[in-house]
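Entry:
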Amino acid sequence: MSPPSVSEIDAFDRKIIEILRDDGRISITDLAARIGLSKTPCQVRLKRLIDSGFIEGFKAVVNPERLGLDHVAFAEVKLSDTREEALRAFDAAVKKIPEIEECHMIAGRFDYLLKVRTTNIRRYRHVLGEKISSLPYVANTSTNVVMQSIKENFA
């Protein structure tokens, strides 16, 4: 039996996903009660959603400010080469830099947008100069510093 496609999940499945996005530690009993099913069918649905890749895992959401990581910058990165080999090399290398929380390939005036979280501007300058600028095929970068975060997803 093949895993369900997005068109094959129903309102119960969508509700499970919605609830777990807000509270990944909810008990199966409470989850079942909230979606209006008994415990066993809820467990079966949850297992199917996990097995089929709709839910990839569960993790702790940490408070970056409590860890002293309250400096956020977005680095725009332009590559000197955008052929497939260059993109693969850049993608692999960027995954090794822990300060980079997110990396997105962009269709626009630059090639990648990186969300970088550090302790302060001095540390960001080091990460930019020593790590990001040294990534394969980086031609130039431009930085936008966050003044205040209004809404963030900590997935």
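DSSP finds five helices and four strands in the chain.
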